[in-house]
Amino acid sequence: MTTTLRVSPITALIPVHALYGVAAGLVGGIGFGIWMSVSRPMADTAMITMVAGLLGSTNAVVGWLIHLGIALFAGVGFGVLLGEFAWKLVPAAVLGLAYGAVWWVLGALWIMPANMGMPVFDWNDVTSSSLGGHLVFGLLAGLTYAAIARATGGRTRSTAR
Predict the structure, then answer these.
(1) How far is residue 115's CA from residue 54's CA, in Å, rounded to a whole number?
(2) Do 156 and 17 meet the contact criterion of CB atoms below 8 Å apart?
(3) Quick one: which of 26, 64, 82, 92 has the most CB atoms within 10 Å?
(4) Within 13 A of 105's CA, how many CA atoms are on the CB side?
(5) For residue 37, with 0-12 CB atoms within 10 Å meaning exposed, 13-18 middle and 19 or more buried, which class applies?
(6) Other C-beta atoms within 10 Å of 106: how many?
(7) Alpha-carbon gap, residue 98 to 131, rounded angstroms
(8) What is the C-alpha to C-alpha distance for residues 146 and 99, in angstroms, rounded to an integer?
(9) Predicted model pTM
(10) What gap in Å lies between CA 1 and CA 75, rounded to an integer?
(11) Which SS3 state, helix, strand or coil, does residue 79 take?
(12) Tens place of pLDDT for every residue, the chain, 161 residues?
């Protein structure tokens, strides 16, 4: 006996959105990682080593691994949540910038400082530099997502509404 599973066209696209989101998150994460590797808002400490501090390390490689893992997760989130609307360059860029800003509030202003015993929602040199990096992440992720969607003929856009 076989069972037929009926899936809506929108639900069927979630794996495609997630896959494109992985690539978008990787590109955005690399751009943001470079930003954090050269940005030193606190004395002589690169931001990427501050990310390593989430696991009690000061090693930049550990920081990169943590950062890229988070970026892949965020990229999948972008694809699943916003991929439907990010198949054209301008909307994808705007959505990416907004998505990067949301991750800045969640990650840089709340989660990371709370995990490191620092004040949350504090505006300082680190958080201001981090805002720029998160916007770079979002912009690159959005544009990458749109480029992939366009290269595949816009197949991520659902026709069912």
Answers:
(1) 7
(2) yes
(3) 92
(4) 5
(5) middle
(6) 13
(7) 11
(8) 14
(9) 0.85
(10) 39
(11) helix
(12) 666 656 566 556 788 999 999 999 999 999 999 999 998 877 677 889 989 988 999 999 999 999 999 999 999 999 999 999 999 999 999 999 999 999 999 999 999 889 888 899 999 888 999 999 999 999 999 999 999 999 987 654 554 44
Extended beta strands in 36-150, E state: none
Structure-block tokens of residue 78: 């972008």
Is 92 in contact with 140 (CB distance < 8 Å)?
no
User: In residues, how long is the chain?
Assistant: 161
> Token digits for 96?
């990416």
Q: What is the b/e burial string over 84-99, where b = at least 16 CB atoms within 10 angstroms of the residue's CB? A: bebbeeeebbebbbeb
The rounded distance, in Å, linking the Cα atoms of 117 and 136 is: 26
How many H helices and E strands in the chain?
A: 7, 0
- Which of 140, 136, 133, 126 shows the shortest CA–CA distance to 89? 140
| One-letter amino acid for residue 52 of the chain | A
